[in-house]
Design a protein that fits this description.
α2 (72-85) links the parallel β4 (64-69) and β5 (91-93). The strands form 2 sheets. A 6-stranded mixed sheet has the order 6-9-8-7-10-11, sandwiched between helices. Strands 3-2-1-4-5 form a 5-stranded mixed sheet, with helices on both faces. Helix content is 37%, strand content 25%. By secondary structure, it is of the alpha/beta class. It catalyses: (R)-pantothenate + ATP = (R)-4'-phosphopantothenate + ADP + H(+).
Length: 266
């Protein structure tokens, strides 16, 4: 199995290539690129083709493609790329008609972001339920819940780290945009450190507060719930959270691989 996976997000997109090693799935490479709204289908191919080669494969080695996308306008170009250059293999674009095996218990299942469904699928596979998925990315901070029966119950969406810092820099006359980095402590000794402390410790507190309340909402004991962090800023923030059990950088890519397996074997 040589599988190309694409996780197309608002600001960043992740591309991964899976292969079988001794009968077990192995991620041969993962790359993060900007989600450039002006990138054409042909340009998307140049990017994907380059990464496929970097993983040690040719285009003809790819046996299937699995993709989730939260930006419809970009998704059109990516689909165009897949239709043009990967028309010889099955392509799974997560959405209606594509099997995930995740029972979605929300008011309107169709409005749930496909990345959230894919992450829930991966969490169920890796940890079982109940589980809470914390996706710390630039646009949004998303905390989702899967119950003990493996049902996706919904979650909470808050502004992301980058969006928050950009708004702060735009609205604060004497504040500027800073890089998210480990502060010396929660009490910043200068403006840059103060903003970094607010971002790192502030979002850690946000996560802990939401997780605690969600555990109460599903009437579970904290020790029975796996809380997994993922996303661009999970490495910077997870270490300051009190409620997290583990961190899985490749949660979405794992979920996309599982989508392929479920639809291939259907």
């Amino acid at each position: 199995m040589s599988l190309l996976c694409l996780d197309v997000g608002n600001r960043l997109s992740v591309i991964g290539v899976w292969d079988d090693v001794d009968g077990q799935p192995a991620l041969r490479g993962r790359w993060t690129i900007s989600s450039d709204a002006t990138r054409t289908a042909d340009e998307w191919y140049l990017v994907a083709h380059g990464f496929v080669r970097a993983a040690g494969f040719a285009d003809d080695d790819i046996e299937a493609v699995s993709m989730c996308c939260t930006v419809p306008s970009i998704g059109v170009e990516v689909r165009g790329m897949l239709d043009r250059y990967f028309d010889h293999v099955p392509v799974w674009v997560v959405g209606p008609g594509v099997r995930t095996g995740v029972a979605i218990h929300t008011d309107n299942p169709r409005e749930v972001g496909t990345d959230r469904i894919v992450n829930a699928l991966a969490a169920i596979h890796l940890y079982g339920g109940p589980a809470i998925i914390v996706d710390l990315n630039g646009t949004a901070t998303i905390v989702d819940v899967v119950d003990g029966r493996g049902r996706y119950l919904g979650g909470a969406i808050a502004p992301g780290v980058e969006v928050s810092l950009e708004a702060l820099a735009q609205r604060g006359a004497q504040l500027r945009s800073v890089e998210v980095a480990e502060p010396r402590g929660v009490i910043g000794k200068n403006t840059v450190e103060a903003i970094q402390a607010g971002a790192v410790y502030g979002f850690a507190g946000l996560v802990d507060g939401l997780v605690d309340q969600m555990i109460d909402a599903i009437d579970a004991e904290p020790e029975d719930v796996t809380v997994v962090a993922t996303g661009t800023f999970s490495e910077a923030i997870a270490g300051h959270c009190q409620t997290l059990t583990t961190r899985e950088e490749d949660l979405t890519l794992i979920g996309l691989r599982l989508v392929h397996e479920k639809n291939r074997d259907a």
